[in-house]
Specification:
236 residues, alpha/beta, eight-stranded parallel beta sheet, 9 helices, 8 strands, 41% helix, globular, binds pyridoxal-5'-phosphate
Length: 236
């Protein structure tokens, strides 16, 4: 991908987000763009950074660490870990990311808390929800959220910020909106239960369903293909 194509794609993605916010009657800037760079080379992330993008999402720990090392001079990049998280990878995530969107069980949360270095800010956390209740998918079920949120809120090195979901693919705006509405309601419920927590993040919406997610209150949309083009290796 040449510079020109990336800058076009980035401008188009920003316009698409602005238009979705406008159509939803929401103020410009109320949702921000997370550029999902999994499988894409560090050089492309650098180009996106030069175009003003600062927040990037990665799914694979080792791949992310390699790219972070190459981009160490870009000190204001904010790295988000958005992939499935196994216990043996929590230390790398705790040490090398600002955010993690895929916390779905207490054991992972406790490990991240224990491994977050003392000289770094608390790790910003979203709980991943299996919103379409798919048997093989990661994420906590809705009825597990209050107990999981309570457990995360007492961990001092984590800061619970909200919820993340990847709904089952659906065609049509109404069908796409339904699971996002459930996620929004789940966050509203947590806000009532834990009024002192700063629960301000709904991480939802990808290339195929950004508009539906923004209609339902997304504050962080995770765009990969729309910014960087098709990926040529399978993703989990
Ligand atoms: C790959 C991925 C994305 C980006 O998906 P696109 O359809 O390419 O926009 C967003 N979120 C998660 C968790 C992903 O794994």
């Amino acid at each position: 991908m040449t510079d020109l194509v990336l800058s076009d794609a980035m401008a188009h993605a920003r316009r698409r987000l602005d238009a979705a916010l406008d159509a939803a009657g929401r103020p410009a800037g109320e949702a921000r763009l997370l550029a999902v760079s999994k499988t894409k080379p560090a050089g492309l992330i650098r180009e996106a950074w030069q175009l003003g993008q600062r927040e990037f999402g990665e799914n694979y720990v080792q791949e992310a660490l390699d790219k972070q090392a190459e981009l160490a001079d870009l000190t204001d990049i904010v790295w988000h870990f958005i992939g499935p998280l196994q216990s043996n990878k929590t230390r790398d995530v705790a040490e090398h990311f600002a955010w993690v969107h895929s916390v779905d069980r207490k054991k992972i949360a406790r490990r991240l808390n224990d491994q977050r270095p003392a000289d770094q800010a608390p790790l910003e956390v979203c709980l991943q929800v299996n919103i379409s209740e798919e048997a093989s998918k990661s994420g906590a079920f809705l009825d597990e959220l209050p107990a999981l949120a309570e457990a995360v809120l007492i961990l001092p090195r984590l800061r619970l910020r909200g919820l993340m979901a990847i709904p089952a693919p659906a065609e049509g705006l109404a069908e796409q909106r339904a699971p996002f509405a459930r996620l929004r309601e789940a966050l509203e419920d947590l806000r009532v239960r834990f009024p002192e927590a700063r629960l301000d993040t709904l991480s939802m919406g990808m290339t195929a369903d950004l508009e539906a997610a923004v209609q339902e209150g997304a504050t962080l949309v995770r765009l990969g293909t729309a910014i960087f083009g098709e990926r040529h290796r399978p993703t989990p």
